[in-house]
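Let's study my pick:
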Amino acid sequence: MTSTRTPPFRADHVGSLLRPAALLRAREAFASGQITREALRRVEDDCIQQVVEKQETIGLRSITDGEFRRTYFHVDFLERLAGVAVQGGIEVRFRSKQGDVDFAPPRLAIVDKLRHTEDIQRADFDFLESVVVAGVPKVTIPSPTMAHFRGGRAAIDIDAYPDLEEFFADLARCYREEIDSLYRAGCRYLQLDDTNLAYLCDPKLREGAKARGDDPSELPRTYAALINAALAGRPADLVVGIHLCRGNFRSAWVAEGSYEPVAEILFNELDVDAYFLEYDDERSGDFAPLRFVPRTKRVILGLVSSKVAGLEPQSELIRRVHEAAVYVPIENLGLSPQCGFSSTVHGNQVSADEQWAKLEHVVKTAKEIWGEA
């Protein structure tokens, strides 16, 4: 039987949390030059300490810093690799039950050879670990695929990388160096946040990949090889999960579709320990793709929506966990919200109280199913 004393936990969460008002004010003050970066960091530290205490109080054992130091879940990390630049935005149409939302997240471009020239998350992890009392500090970083999918070949300088294989090799090396830095600092629980494998479940986005010159049927295997290279040589006691996201901006999403097109590669060729899968509504299809999951891996079911305020009936959550258990042994399953509550600084359309009610609901439901969180 899978141990519940090490991550991922029966009750887990994806990572990002709504930014407190004090933090948002401090970020605005820093952007306008009213306070220094050091002053902003002190506010971040205070807010992170409070949000860590709140996570532990409600019974979570997986503890993050809420991604409070970031504006975007991926950009703030990737732009600190030498050779990556932000150039304009990518026009994206997000969908929601209230109507479409047009948004242009920053566009990343590869303008030179990629190099890992600094520890990106080390200082942030050091602080998080220093304030965690009862849980396990969890670090979330963007999947390396985020440096490729949205721009494809056109976003990678041809002089720097005439051969894409060299680009993927350098990108994986940068990740290995960052992961080694985190491990040496004491990190034992790491999560990669990946939108692109989930985007490749959506027929429209698959067509978009074709239009960029990529083969959407081969990209999952290319991305699995990239992620595996990024994780190559990791110590046995570093638990790595991957979260598949269909887009998360102010309670809106981008992609829809069953995991079926990527499932066999996702679950069998990707060298990770656990999968955080969005399953909060019909956008994700049924549980049948879970038939490909090996018994050595864990699946954390994102059945609780971070996009809407209302609590899902506990009986419904329990029923759906048992439906998934037809394909994955119930001892290999866990429960979480389907995504973070604030993948960007803007946050989803829920209140802080509603966010904490959702997370506490996850903890209580996990205890009801498994007898522990």
Summary: The chain has one domain: 21-370. The radius of gyration is 19 Å. The chain has a mean pLDDT of 92.
